[in-house]
Design brief:
Two copies of one chain form a homodimer.
Chain A lengths: L2 H7 L2 E9 L3 E3 L21 H7 L2 E5 H8 L11 E4 L14 E4 L3 H10 L4 E5 L1 H9 L5 E7 L1 E2 L4 E2 L8 E11 L3 E8 L9
Chain lengths: ~190, ~190
């Protein structure tokens, strides 16, 4: 294995996201108030800081970026953000050292970022996650489910031509209410012997 | 509280079902092979027998009934099955003592069954579960998630006009791979203090 192959072998794309019981990441009008439905007085981060240490950079969709860029609070990411958009021309002035626009298909984007020495990514935003999954480019899912049925909205997962099997790695319950499960991508011949 | 109110107060409708990571109960062509994706040599029942003891009867949709009635194996239900169908005229001859057709809307059906002394039900089948949820008639969800993305199919949950909040009760992992969470219906004022 040469150096490039070696680095590609450690490539990892991680999804870390919260969903409702019925699989939405936002309500019909983009509502995300329910993400705070459980009081969190101790500031439990539910694995967010560990994730930030695990990754080289973040790849997010344009909708997620717009939301974060307009959020009235400190910039939440300690790692470089790549905004996947074929229409956005530039990022706001105050974010030019934090975020960069990238264009193209997931595979080509990952190859290009790999050449810059970036191999491990937090993949965020429903559309972006779905486009990566359709090309089987997600290695790990860390999904936190909140105890609410929204009845409609923006779905985490979308239609795919092909099934994808995963292996359950661990499950933790945060604040007594939020169920977080981690899954790693693995082709499984049924029935999986455990 | 009179006797009737007392019995109504203990009414409970329980959903017990398996879904894919992307929230389907069957694939695009009705595939359910993935329900057996994890080997279960010890015959772990994942709470099924306890559920059967918890309930007075089963209410299921016509699709689920057709599937079970045609299944080549022993009849799986120790309690009476009520098949919710406005078109089905009769059940197969060999099931006349096990299953009965009922018609009407969920609330009226529950009232009628309550008069027969039946108060606690296992509600099964996607369409039936969704129609009960739309009238806020589900008291408990016991959902087992399998580690596979199907990419399409028959969804467990459907559109609803109104959000429904639940309280997480417990989560267990079966066979190292299947995550089962139990939720009880409760109106929650955000943020819920735990």
């Amino acid at each position: 294995m040469n150096s490039y192959q070696n680095k590609m072998a450690k490539r990892k794309n991680i999804v870390f996201i919260a969903q409702s019981l019925d699989g939405y990441i936002a309500g019909p009008s983009g509502e995300i108030d329910w993400l705070d439905m459980v009081a969190n007085p101790g500031g439990e981060d539910m694995g967010y800081l560990a994730l930030m240490q695990d990754i080289d950079a973040i790849i997010m969709g344009r909708n997620t970026f717009d939301f974060v860029a307009n959020y009235d609070g400190p910039w939440p990411y300690p790692k470089k953000v790549f905004v996947l958009s074929n229409t956005l021309q530039s990022v706001p002035q105050h974010l030019t050292d934090k975020a960069e626009i990238i264009k193209g298909k997931p595979k080509a984007i990952l190859d290009n970022l790999g050449k810059q020495g970036l191999y491990t990514f937090y993949i965020d935003g429903g559309v972006t996650i779905q486009s990566f999954l359709r090309e089987d480019l997600i290695d790990e899912l860390r999904i936190t489910t909140l105890p609410i049925l929204l009845g409609g909205g923006y779905a985490l997962f979308g239609d795919m031509e092909k099934r994808l099997t995963f292996e359950h790695e661990s499950t933790a319950v945060y604040l007594g209410q939020l169920v977080q499960s981690r899954y790693v991508r693995r082709d499984i011949d049924f029935p999986l012997q455990t």
